[in-house]
Specification:
Elements lengths: L1 E7 L46 E6 L2 E5 L1 H5 L8 E9 L8 E9 L2 H17 L1 E9 L2 E10 L2 E7 L19 H13 L12 H15 L14 H12 L7 H6 L31 H8 L1
Antiparallel strand pairs: 1-4, 1-5, 2-3, 4-6, 5-8, 6-7, 7-8
Length: 295
């Protein structure tokens, strides 16, 4: 058992774009205001009072079972500050697709300090992590804990039914040996240590720039990268970016115009078809991620 205090690892504030009733940019001369969403009957359009709203489950199209607050309250799992470690497993056995939210677990009192240090040292020596259950937001979740200094890192885990099986197709034909060699050369040149500070959310940065430009009345030019179509062309282009550029004369360097900033991370260029075609693009591995993407 471990007693401690948990604190979310992630939680940085991020700007978010809000919606209003205005039309295109040229029509945004009027004052903007926030909108309020109110519950209403989709059939009649009449507004529904808050006390009339009940919780339920749609088991067939248009067929519901409803629940009273007492019925749902009876399902609550008792919260506890004690994390009961049920099992220890090698860290490498847990597929990252099951990881959900990370937390820091701090000791709560002198007894908890010694407990975390002793268990953490033993876990680190054996190369294992602990698996337990924890109640968060009225829901019992499986969690993984691993030692981090004098405390622990805690990761909530997805259950097996929350993770969708991969639907990868069967490979057809032999791989192009030249493309494999080029890809290998790029990978070797870019192999190094992971530094999270080098990766940024470029959308959020661009959104902040857009907000500042709007506040100052400046115009913003939006540039989009050219899509990559052919894999061999993409690989050779990536390899060319890794090769040292030829030296130029001082005069040519001074006369050269500064290029527009490229917000994209340096990456191995791969052709990914755009649009809404799922077969050619990335697909969420979990049902929860799928719902968030649709929303």
């Amino acid at each position: 058992m471990i007693k401690g205090q948990q604190q979310a690892i992630t939680g940085a504030s991020r700007p978010a774009a809000t919606h209003d009733d205005t039309g295109p940019a040229e029509d945004q001369s009027g004052a903007a205001t926030r909108i309020t969403l109110r519950p209403h009957d989709p059939g009649t359009g009449e507004e529904v009072e808050k006390e009339e709203v009940v919780k339920g489950y749609e088991y067939q199209r248009g067929q519901f079972v409803t629940f009273t607050p007492d019925e749902l309250k009876a399902l609550d799992v008792e919260s506890s500050e004690i994390i009961d470690l049920e099992k220890f497993v090698p860290r490498g056995e847990i597929d990252p697709v099951y990881f959900n939210s990370p937390y820091y677990l701090y000791p709560d009192g002198p007894i908890a300090v010694d407990t975390l240090r002793v268990i953490g040292a033993a876990m680190a020596e054996l190369g294992v992590v602990g698996i337990a259950r924890l109640t968060l937001s009225r829901r019992e979740r499986p969690v993984m804990v691993e030692p981090r200094g004098t405390g622990m890192a805690l990761f909530t885990l997805r259950t097996a039914e929350e993770v969708r099986a991969a639907q990868f197709g069967s490979p057809e034909g032999d791989l192009d040996a030249e493309m494999v060699v080029i890809a290998g050369a790029i990978i070797k040149q870019r192999t190094g240590k992971f530094d999270p500070s080098t990766y940024r959310d470029h959308y959020q940065e661009a959104l902040r720039e857009l907000i500042e430009a709007k506040m100052q009345g400046r115009a913003v030019t939006v540039t989009r990268p050219t899509p990559v179509i052919d894999l061999m062309t993409a690989l050779k282009s990536s390899l060319a970016h890794e090769s040292p550029a030829p030296k130029r004369s001082t005069r040519a360097t001074k006369e050269a115009k500064p290029a527009a900033p490229d917000r994209r991370q340096p990456a191995l260029l791969l052709p990914v078809t755009g649009g809404r075609t799922r077969k050619a693009g990335a697909e969420p591995a979990t049902d929860a991620a799928r719902r968030r993407k649709r929303g």
